[in-house]
Each structure stands twice: as C-alpha cells, then as structure tokens.
Design a protein that fits this description.
Elements lengths: L2 E5 L1 H4 L6 E5 L39 E2 L2 E4 L6 E7 L3 E5 L5 E4 L3 E8 L1 H4 L2 H6 E11 L5 E7 L13 E7 L2 E5 L3 E3 L2 E5 L5 E7 L9 E2 L1 E8 L5 E9 L2 H13 L2 E3 L9 E2 L3 E6 L4 E3 L3 E3 L11 E6 L6 E7 L5 E7 L16 H7 L1 H6 L4 H10 L5 H8 L4 H14 L2 H14 L1 H8 L2
Parallel strand pairs: 3-6
Antiparallel strand pairs: 1-2, 4-5, 5-8, 6-7, 7-10, 8-9, 9-15, 10-14, 11-12, 11-15, 13-14, 16-20, 17-18, 17-19, 18-24, 21-23, 21-25, 22-24, 25-26
Helix pairs in contact: 5-10, 7-10, 8-9, 10-11
C-alpha cells in the first residue's frame, strides 16, 4: 500500500518533528512520534548541517531471546524465536521486531546485501540496515519492524526510504507503513529476504545523518597496548561479524559509548589520542557501509605506556566538529596479556569454575560464539538452555567445555575475555 510522509505542523517550530507515514486510504493507525531534539533551524540536509546531538528515541518493546541454529551444511547461523502470544516483540540479539496475531515461532538470519543487489541497484540504492532472511507461518505476522540506522532529523526526506523484498532473484520495493526512529514498519509482509534501502540522491549523498558505533578491541598477544578501532553504522549484523573476527584474533572488546552526534557516510573522521600514540595506516578513518562478509576498515592504535591512561577523540575532517570522545583508563587494558602469568584457558576455567557458575556473563551470546567456533553443537546448546537456574546452566556448559579438552577451554576463555573483560580481569587478580 502506498504511503506518504507528513510532519505535524504544530511541533515543527519547537524543534520536534512528528513524522507519520499515512496510507493513501483511510486509516485508524496510531500516530507514532519520537524526539529529535532541538535542531538548527537552517537544517537543509547539505554540508552546512551543524552536527546537533542526536535525541532519537526508539520503541520500548518486550524482548525475546532467540535460540541459535545452523542450516544442514553449517554455512548459515539462524535465529529461532518463539513469540508467546499476540503482541509486538523485539529480538534481543538482532533488533528485529514482529507484531503477531497469536503465538508463533519465527526463524530468521542475516543475509548479505552484495549477494542480492546488482551493480546497477548499488548505484541507485544504499543499504540502511541489516538484510534479513525470514521464515514465518503465513498470515500470523501483522507487521515486521526492520532495523535501520538513519537518524531521522527534521528535514530527512523519508520518501527516499523503501523496504526491499528479494525473491527468486528479483527485487521488489515497498513503501514502509511507518518510519520511526531505528525501525521501518511494514504491515502484512510476505517473507524471504527483507531490508531497508535509502535512495541515493547526489545532493544528499554525503549529508545523510546516520547512527553509528565505535568498537575498540585490545590485541591480547600484541606488543604493549595495541588497539583496533572500528567506526561503523549501527548495524548489529556488522557488529557481530567484527566481534567474531576479533575473537578469532584473540582480542577482547573494550566497551565505550557510541558517537554523540549523527555521522555521515562517505566522510572521513580523524582519530587522535591525548597521549603519544602510533595510529596506522593513518589517523583518518573512512565512514562507510560494508557488507557483513567484507573486511571492515579499522585503525590500529599502538600506545607504549598506558599506566596513566589516555583520551581518544574523533572529529569530522569536513568541519572539525568533535563527534566522539572516550577515556581509555589503565584499568580498561588487560596488562596480564603481556605477562608470563597470563592464564591459559584450561587453568582459568579450572581455577575459577565455582565463580563462573555464579556469574559468567551473557549466556546466549557466549553460546552463540561457541556454536560459531564449533565447540558445541545444537544438541549440547539445547542441553544447556534446558537447565533451570542460570547457575545450573553455567555449570553444565563448563562441564561440557572441560570434557572437550584444552582447545575448547582456550576458546571459551577468549570469548569471555572479549565479552566480559572486567569479570575475567577480576577473577585473574584473585
């Protein structure tokens, strides 16, 4: 069903834009609003955009945690979510949302844009969020909430947004029923591969505001303090791909807040440190969207002395605006990584088994990484999830990993370092 964009005039002057996508036919759907904050009155979606702090507020939906599965060939990791009743639910891992008429189980996985978009389509359309391959019982899903990373500033042209549907090698475009902060809502969807696209227009190509993430990882076996810093759109599929790659490189993530301003795809952002540091290949980091199966660009930061910490800053090379800052403290760094006292995985698991039973971290994500590394299979994952209390689940998982030997314990140790570095650091100090 076609839709058009409308901005509530009584709120335009206050700096708040309430934008509805209104069906051409009569509709009784509820108005959806979100807070964009006070933007500059001269906002024209061109290079003069001032970089106002983003105040987009997403939907507050009940979350479901999916179970992780593999296809028969083991090539694709999929999620299987059981929605317990009629209502609207959001996946805690992917951000994908569903409005359903009754209880239902839905299977979905990430797909790659480059597999489906032709070269001609890529010239015309820009991916604005993850691409999902979705399977669901026909007629049960009223609407799907597809994640997107466009910052819906006052004068963003929402008519450029479409939902792409890929089936049998062909792409069909539909207008979303509603476009809200962080999600494009499509009612009465048909499922195969679905994702949000944004039409490229030369005048706005490099001035479209985007929500973004800064990911920092410490290389545990590198000289002194060596960090990898990524700047990516706020796309969970890309984030997950980077985390899995860095775990394989024996890295741990150092959690830091995202940029406090919307960024612009196609621009370069300069990374600097308040302390002497080597930043390679150069300080400028391109902000671009790459498919999850492609190598994501990053800068490597080498700091010889981290005893007193350092500050990291990021600025827009276009106008010098600061878009992100973070304090990197000595306590954020795993200094034991450069010491002969560093725990092996087996030693760590054996020594701290009782403590890990009580608190290991995000179990669903740990299981996800263990499945990806082929440390456990689907039956073993089900065995862990089937336990009652979280303490019992942790105990069963630890016993499974111990039985599989030193390599499996080492991989669990690396996953814990990446996902729960403060817990690992605290236990190693005991």
């Amino acid at each position: 069903m076609a839709a058009r964009s409308r901005v509530s005039p009584e709120r335009r002057s206050s700096g708040l834009a309430v934008r509805e996508l209104v069906p051409d036919e009569a509709s009784t759907s509820t108005e959806v609003s979100y807070d964009f904050g006070q933007f500059y009155s001269s906002l024209n979606m061109d290079s003069s955009w001032k970089g106002s702090r983003c105040h987009c507020v997403g939907e507050d939906l009940p979350e479901v945690t999916p179970r992780r599965t593999r296809d028969l060939l083991g090539h694709h990791t999929a999620y299987r979510a059981h929605l317990p009743a009629a209502g609207v639910f959001r996946c805690s891992v992917t951000g994908l949302g569903f409005e359903v008429k009754s209880a239902v189980t839905i299977t979905y996985r990430y797909d790659t844009w480059t597999t489906h978009l032709s070269e001609a389509d890529q010239e015309m359309w820009m991916p604005a969020g993850p691409l999902f391959h979705i399977k669901a019982q026909p007629g049960v899903v009223r609407a799907v909430h597809l994640p997107h990373f466009i910052c819906l500033a006052e004068d963003v042209n929402t008519s450029l947004c479409s939902v792409a549907h890929f089936e049998s090698g062909k792409m069909t475009l539909e207008s979303p029923t509603r476009l809200i902060a962080f999600s494009a809502v499509l009612e009465n969807p048909s499922f195969s591969a679905l994702g949000v696209l944004w039409r490229k227009i030369r005048s706005t190509l490099y001035s479209l505001p985007v929500h973004s993430l800064v990911l920092i990882f410490q290389q545990l076996r590198a000289a002194s303090t060596t960090l990898h810093l990524y700047l990516i759109p706020d796309d969970n599929s890309v984030k997950q791909a980077i985390e899995e790659q860095e775990v394989n490189w024996n890295s741990k993530r150092i959690p830091k807040p995202p940029p406090f301003r919307a960024l612009f795809l196609g621009r370069d952002y300069r990374v600097t440190s308040t302390k002497q540091a080597e930043i390679t290949p150069e300080e400028q980091l391109p902000f671009c969207y790459k498919s999850l199966n492609e190598q994501q660009p990053f800068v490597e930061i080498y700091i010889a002395d981290m005893e007193e910490g350092t500050g990291l800053h990021m600025t827009d090379t276009h106008d010098g605006t600061e878009v992100w800052r973070a304090s990197l403290r000595s306590g954020d760094i795993d200094h034991s990584a450069h010491s002969l006292k560093t725990s092996s995985g087996a030693t760590f698991v054996r020594k701290h088994k009782i403590a890990l039973c009580s608190a290991m971290g995000p179990l669903s994500t740990i299981l996800l990484h263990l499945r990806d590394a082929d440390v456990i299979n689907s039956d073993e994952e089900e065995e862990v999830r089937g336990q009652g209390a979280s303490k019992e689940k942790n105990r069963v998982l630890l016993e499974l990993v111990e039985k599989k030997g030193l390599e499996a314990q080492e991989r669990l140790y690396q996953i814990l370092q990446a996902l729960n570095p403060y817990l690992v650091k605290d236990l190693e100090r005991r």
